[in-house]
Model the fold of this input.
Amino acid sequence: MKHEEIYRDLQKQLAEGKWKPGQQLPTEREFSQQYGVSRPTISRVLNRLRDAGRIRRTAGAGTFVTEAPESDEPPHLNLGLLVPGLGRAELFEPICARIAERSQQFDFTLTWGSVPADDAVDHEAHLLAAAQRLIDHGIDGVFFQPLEREPEAPRKNLRIVALFESSRIPLLLLDSDYLPYPQRSSHDLVGIDNIGASFVLTNHFLEQGCVRVDFVGQPYSAGTWSLRLIGYREALRRAGIESRQDFEHEGDPRSVSFARQLFESGARNIISLNDETAARLMRSFESLDLKVPNDVRIAGFDDVKYAHLARVPLTTMRQPCRALGDLAVRTMLERVAHPWLPPQTVTTTAELCARESSRVPREGRFPR
Done:
């Protein structure tokens, strides 16, 4: 084991109360045998814990756990940020910016894991390298947005997570879990109430008199796909409308042929997994000379900047990015201070932004 890993392991054991204040710790020899490293390595670790005020070392007597400090001031933390969607998904920029804003108030340093946004690069190799750099930098916790929308994303996420877990570094997941629903990982998660948001967006169409609403996502999408489908289906069920699998579609919204298939199947009122999917689908429909909202209606999730600036302003569920950043910081600080707590799922409410793209004409050209 490396010096940093041993230091973090002993820190965790001290925080969890394995040794009580005043209790003597094992000797350097015993620790070196336990971790399979040299005594000088253990000596460096113990000296670092001494300098941090966690232990006291007395020549000829041994090493002892210090009494709990009287000050309630939390220690300065070094937190990491690993967001593969940064630069590709606009949603995460304001969330990360808010986390950075809070660093001064809550006395932590934020170290960004640099990952190229270029689709041509090997994201797995870059993410693993970035994760290792964060570990080597001595971080106390990591904000991590799981990789999505590419082949083998689940396997790649597991490799990244395993690096941090082996170093006993807490992870806080942004937006979604890396395990498919209904599985839940052992890490904290901060995001919107996806089930409730999708329920609200589906009702937006139903309240306008629509009797058929379709749902569209892209291949390899995040775990939010399953949660939003649950909200969509529940809204239909409560309206007395049958939820049919042939109304739930997966495909490339940039594909004109996919858009044509959607339209020919009877899809007229479409909920897209996110704003990016919705915007690309709108362009594909335009290539088929189909007009939004007269011929087909579309809505999405996130409320990215271009949503209200599009030629036809997009109806969407707005994610409260600043609030999500605040929740992420608060949850991370609580996790570092209390590592034994069970994993938390912290959600907040998204806001419906009803715009022209989902407006159902009174005299629609096609059945609703």
Remarks:
- The CA atoms of residues 303 and 318 lie 5 Å apart.
- The radius of gyration is 25 Å.
- The chain has a mean pLDDT of 90.
- The first helix runs from residue 3 to 15.
